[in-house]
Amino acid sequence: MTLLSQTTTTPCPVKIDEEGVPYLSIPNHPELRLTPYLETDDDDLIKLFNDPEIGKWSWRRPYPYTVEHMDFVTSALPQRQALVKLITETLPNPVPLTKFDSRYFPFGVLRHVPSGRLIGDMYVGPTSSFSHSTVEVEEGGTQFEDGEVWEMAYNVSSQWQGKGVGSAMIKTTLEYLKWQGVKKVNATAEVINAPSGGVLRKNGFKQVKIIQLVWPEEKGGMTKDCYSFEQLL
Ligand SMILES: CC(C)(COP(=O)(O)OP(=O)(O)OC[C@H]1O[C@@H](n2cnc3c(N)ncnc32)[C@H](O)[C@@H]1OP(=O)(O)O)[C@@H](O)C(=O)NCCC(=O)NCCS
């Protein structure tokens, strides 16, 4: 794996709460933060994934989502906790991108701070962990190093939708990725998912092509048109 020289002039967006836990703030929503996952979040995450307004858009994630499916999340908990520790120790400098070999980022929980409840999630990680390609070449010839291209996916619970939260959560995540040294971010949204396309466009993503994704057999196996979005940071 190539060792990247990380030169970032972006100010550090990571803050530390009164208990020493790092988080990202959400613009215009002081009551919300992007925070690390806690073991006590399991029930809220299952509830989020079973929200019909969220489940209907999920491609490979099971729907209905049950406690048996949580293995995918809980098995990564030790790695997540180690990464949170590393980030905290390295501040205000970013952790080298080569340390991010897993399909998650350490601030994946959108939390309502007064209640402590999980009300959404942000799923972002190197594209190489979403697919098998590790290096991308831009049309103009730009060669991206391993780890410099990341993929983004997100959900906001239906009670919180339409209040600017999704858009603000993406904005703060992009600031984090820029600080981290990520050069390009990809995202995919169904053509008919207007809110998802809306929050991406509002945050500077460009719609580059239409792709057809095949849904799993147990969800009908149908093919759906999706926009492929990208943004150079
Ligand atoms: C997609 C999602 C994260 C957006 O979050 P949100 O908090 O509801 O969105 P916001 O309130 O920030 O909306 C921001 C912009 O999105 C667009 N938008 C939102 N709802 C829209 C709708 N029904 N039709 C068209 N555009 C819409 C608007 O451009 C809006 O900008 P505005 O404030 O200038 O009107 C949220 O709706 C969600 O979780 N949906 C279900 C799960 C999902 O689709 N996940 C993504 C899978 S690819």
TrEMBL record:
It comes from the Eukaryota. Pfam families: Acetyltransf_3. GO terms for molecular function: acyltransferase activity, transferring groups other than amino-acyl groups. CDD domains: NAT_SF. PROSITE patterns: GNAT (PS51186). This is Uncharacterized protein. It comes from Kwoniella shandongensis. The lineage of its organism: Eukaryota, Fungi, Dikarya, Basidiomycota, Agaricomycotina.
